């Protein structure tokens, strides 16, 4: 787990204008920067980035957050990856509580990663340059209906014939990084001697594979004729793992947001052909089955995922694996569908024969996950016989056990119960589903914590906008907050604790990032502050000090009344009475001195 102190220090060092500016064209507008929101379609800029608050906010869709939050939402990175990306840009090394790697070894690993990344970038530039002088490759791409614009967008290139063309690219062709990056192969004899090095990719159209940061981490190469293998991918390397990456995701991110869905295909050519024909929201798995990690990455980008598969047996098998990978991530606010083309077509061939409108109709008619699951388990079983219905339930059990309790799972259970002449409760009991929904007794809804109002809300806004103000609040003030109510005391106490932990240099961005990890109850206040103008720290501090003093005085008065009504012996009352009067006197003297100095 990354320490919160590191997160705070990181957010103090990075500049959100630089971070967002890598992806969004920003223009100065008063104290802030403005641009078109990358999270929803708009023609007039409503997206603002505040350099003083180190926060972004969209007045159109309400999106807001820190530099870390922006990378997570825009690039689809996980929290740790976003932190590491920002840290790398400002020369910080992310500490990890369970990291047992010595500093020298960690530095060596980082140097290796940098060397591999540099090698992939140089190779990509070389392949792109070679495509310009490869008439056969250009003719092949044109015959597939691709333009130079699309080829350039995806960084496509060409690996010419010959065994060691990369020797002209790298000063040291024998360097170990070229093998580790998967660019070359070392061939040795049975005794491990007579090593001969040669390029992995030869006479192939080259598709660079980028990670979410846009760095080239691998390649896919396609032959021009009927050679084997038709597609050759980079091997697993320290930079590249097939089960974690999706081809075209970096290029498709904005298009996915614009379209409202992502289309998942099986090949590189499908992605570029669909982009050429007006479907730039397409991505592809990399010669491997769809994994839960793939699904998780996709659902970070959009709430709607459509898998596109060929209609043949291989396509059905791939769809079944995608179904199994999707089930752990299914929820009621996410939609996953399956598109099956005729067996003689893939997306590339279908869209060239039937055009964009024909393919759009196929997308519109894609099969919902629930329907596909029930169709899969029903298979060819005879539902008129008990044995057939039992086999359907047997096949469905492991799939439903992958799903979290949800309304969608209940709907699928009901559909299965109808197919197999059972009840939903029987299915849930027989399958031992976690937290059964159909048989659960509904508890009366609990009233949520009251929404902060009045004085409590005003103090909360100040503490969120200016975290160092929390240092003005001592133990006596925290105790006095109880007189505002237990919920108010909890909210204010939590804010004070987080703010004081950040110290005198705590920022709004750092506090907002920590509150986001605690839940969503502070989102509305954070959004209001992000959208509002900058408040004056000195006047806020003056008001807070004065208000805290009045809260303490009111708390002392209430305690005094309780003391007289307690029935305690007079000597015990007298001791506390004198303490209260002394505390009241000191607070009143502070108030009078403040009035004189105004």
TrEMBL record:
Q: Cite the EC number.
A: 2.7.7.101
Ranges for the Toprim domain?
260-342
Reactions accelerated catalytically: ssDNA + n NTP = ssDNA/pppN(pN)n-1 hybrid + (n-1) diphosphate
A GO molecular function assigned to this protein is: DNA binding
Quote the PROSITE patterns the UniProt record gives. Answer: TOPRIM
Q: Which cofactor does it need?
A: Zn(2+)
Does the record bear Repeat in its keywords?
Answer: no
Kindly give the InterPro entries that the UniProt entry links to this protein. DNA_primase_core_N_sf, DNA_primase_DnaB-bd, DNA_primase_DnaG, DNA_primase_Znf_CHC2, DnaG_bac, DNAG_N, DnaG_primase, TOPRIM_DnaG_bac
What's a Pfam family in this record? Zn_ribbon_DnaG
The record's function comment reads: RNA polymerase that catalyzes the synthesis of short RNA molecules used as primers for DNA polymerase during DNA replication.
Q: What is known of its domains?
A: Contains an N-terminal zinc-binding domain, a central core domain that contains the primase activity, and a C-terminal DnaB-binding domain.
Protein family according to the UniProt entry: Belongs to the DnaG primase family.
- State how it assembles: Monomer. Interacts with DnaB.
Q: What is the name of the protein in this document?
A: DNA primase
Q: Which organism is it from?
A: Janthinobacterium psychrotolerans
**Name of the encoding gene:** dnaG
